[in-house]
What we know:
The complex is a heterodimer.
Chain A: E1 6-16, E2 21-32, E3 37-41, H1 48-56, E4 64-73, E5 76-77, H2 83-89, E6 94-97, H3 101-104, H4 111-122, H5 127-140, H6 146-149, H7 159-171, E7 177-181, H8 189-206, E8 209-214, H9 217-223, E9 226-231, E10 234-240, H10 241-246, H11 251-258, H12 298-302, E11 304-305, E12 308-311, E13 314-316, H13 323-326, E14 327-328
Parallel strand pairs in A: 3-8, 3-9, 6-7, 7-8
Antiparallel strand pairs in A: 1-2, 1-4, 4-5, 9-10, 10-13, 11-14, 12-13
Chain B: H1 2-29, H2 34-39, H3 45-55, H4 61-73, H5 87-122, H6 127-141, H7 144-158, H8 174-207, H9 211-218, H10 223-260, H11 266-275, H12 279-307, H13 309-313
Helix pairs in contact in B: 1-12, 5-6, 5-8, 5-10, 6-8, 7-8, 7-10, 8-10, 9-10, 10-11, 10-12, 11-12
Amino acid sequence: MSSPLLSVEGLRVAARTRRRENLLIEDVSFDVREGEFLGIVGESGSGKSMTALSIMGLLPGPVVQATAGRVLLQGRDVLKMPDGDLRRLRGGAIGMIFQDPMTSLNPVQTIGRQIVEVVRLHEEISRPAAWERAVELLREVNIPAPEERAQAYPHQLSGGMRQRVMIAMAIACRPRLLIADEPTTALDVTIQAQILELLDRLRRERGMAVVLITHDLGVVSEYADRVLVMYSGRVVETAPVADLFAAPSHPYTRGLLNSVPPLSEEVEELRAIEGQPPTPGAWPAGCRFRPRCDESRPACARWDVRLVSVDPGHSAACLLLDDKENAHAP
Amino acid sequence: MTSYIARRLLAAVPVLLLVSLLAFLLMQIVPGDPAHAMAGSDASVEEINELRRGLGLDRPWHLRLAEWYLALLQGDLGHSYTLRADVTDLIFERIPITLSIAIYSMLIAVPFSIVLGVLAARFRGSALDLGIMGAALLGVSVPNFWIGIMAILFFSVQLGWLPAGGYVPPSESVIGWLQSMTMPALVLGTMQMGLLTRITRSEMLEMMHKDFVRTARAKGASELRVMMAHALRNAIIPIVTVIGLLFGMIVTGAVVVEQVFSVPGLGRLIVQAILTRDYPLIQGTLLFVASAFVFVNLIVDLSYAFFDPRIRQN
C-alpha cells in the first residue's frame, strides 16, 4: 500500500508558561490515507482541536508549541517547515473549517472577496478570473444565486450558508486534506446533516481526505471510515468505524457509546460517564481515565498504558486488554 | 441617510443651547465683569457704572440671555466689547489658523500612531513594544506646554530650524507658513499620538485573537496581510471613534499650544475673551467650538457606515 497522505507520529504539544509546562497532547500518532474520512472524537480538553491546529502549523505560539513528534504531510514534516512553505500549505494542500462560521469570516469583507483572497494567495490568477472561481465554488457548495451571494457580507447569510462559504474557501485550491473542527456544533440539527452530506460529497467528488473533529459519535458512525478516540491528550482507541461500534475495546469508548441514544431501540435511561475529564496539567498518573473508569484496578494507577492491537487496524490503550504486553514502567 | 443626518443635527440643538447657557451662567458667577476689565484698575465706581450701562450690563441677566438667544436665531453672535468687531467675523478669521494646526497635527499623529500601535501589537512583550508603549505614555502624560517650551529651546534656540512662535499666513509665504505651523502641530500631535498608539495596540491585540484572523492564517495569508487586511481593517472602527474624540480635544490643546507659540488662532481668542470678560465673544467662541465638536462626531458616526457593512444595513 502507498504511504499515507498524512502521518502524525508521537506528537506532543505543550503550553509553556514561565513557571511550568502543561502538556496538552502526548504521544499522539495516526495516519490519514488519501480520500479517507477520519473522525476524531473526544470531549473538550481531549486535545482534538490542538491536534488539528498542529497539522496546520497553526498552534497559538509562542505559548503553545509542538515539543516532540512529527507531522508528515506527503512525506514532509509540517512542524519543521519554513514559514513560506507553511503558508503555501495552508489553504493549499490543507483546507480547514472551524466551529463558528459567524466569527470565522471577516465581517467587513464580502464573501466573494474572501474566497478570491485564498485563490489569489495560491495561484497566479487575475481578479476577475478569481471572482469567477469564487462564484463557481459557491455553486459547488449549493449556495443559491451564487453571483449575487458573492457580493453579500457574512452577516447577511444564515449560519448554514456561512459554513458553506467557509467550506468553499477551504476547498478553493483543491486541497488533498480538509480538516473540519466541529463544523456543525454551532448549527441547527437540520443544517448539520446538510453540511456533513456536503463534506462527504466533496470528499467523494474531489478525492480529498477529511478529518472531522467532533464530540458527536452519531455523526462519526454515519460518515467516517475510521475513528480516533481521544481522552486527556492521548489516543485511547482507534478502529474502523464498524469495528468500533461493534466491539469498543476501551472502557471510555464504551462509556461514550452508552451515552448515545440508539435510534433503533427504546432505552430506559442513558448512562453518562461519571465525573469530569481532568484538566490538562492535572492528569492522574497511569491511565488518565482511571478515576472515572468502572473497571479500573490498582495496577491502572501504576502503569502507563500504550495502544495495543486488538484486531487488525483496531487498537486501544487499556491495561485490561493485555497486561504483559501493554504495561511498561512509567 | 438624509433623515438620519437631519435627526442628528436636530438632536444637537438642545446640546448647543445648553452649552451656551452654561457658558453664560458661568460668566455670571465668576467675579469681575467687562466694565472692570475695560475701565482699568484706577477707574472710579461712577465710570465703571457708566460703562456697564453703556454695555447694557445693568439689566437683569435673564433679559440679556433672552436677547442673546433671539439674536442667535437671526444668525447674529453679537459684537465683541474689546475687539470692536462682529464675533462671527472674529471667529471666521481665526478658524483657518487653528484648523490648519489641527489637520497638520492629525496628519502627523494618525499615520504614525497606527504604524506604532500595529508594531507594538505584533511584537507584543518585546523591547520594541515596551519602548513604543513607554513613549506613548510619556506623550499622554507630559503637559503640552512643557513639550512646547522644550521644543522651542531645541528647534529654535539650539538648532535655529524653526521660528519660536508667531504666524505667517500662507498668502505671504507657504514655506514660512509651514514652518510656523510645524512646532505647534508637533506639540499638539504628541498627546494624540500617545493616546492613539495605545488604542491601536489594544484594539489590534483584541482583533488578533478573533476567529477570522485565524481563518486568514489558515488560508495561507502572510503575517503582514493578516495584520493589515484583516486585523487592522476591523480595528479601524474603534480607532476612528477615538480620532473623532481627539479632534475635540485639539481645541483644548490649541488653547495651550497657541498661547505657547503665540499663534493667533481660535484658542488664543478664547483665552483673550475670558481674560477680558468679553461676554459676547466668550459665548460665541464656545458655541462655535461645541458645534464643531458635534459636527465632527456626526462625521465620525457617518463614517462607521463606510467602514462597517453591518452598520450600513441599518
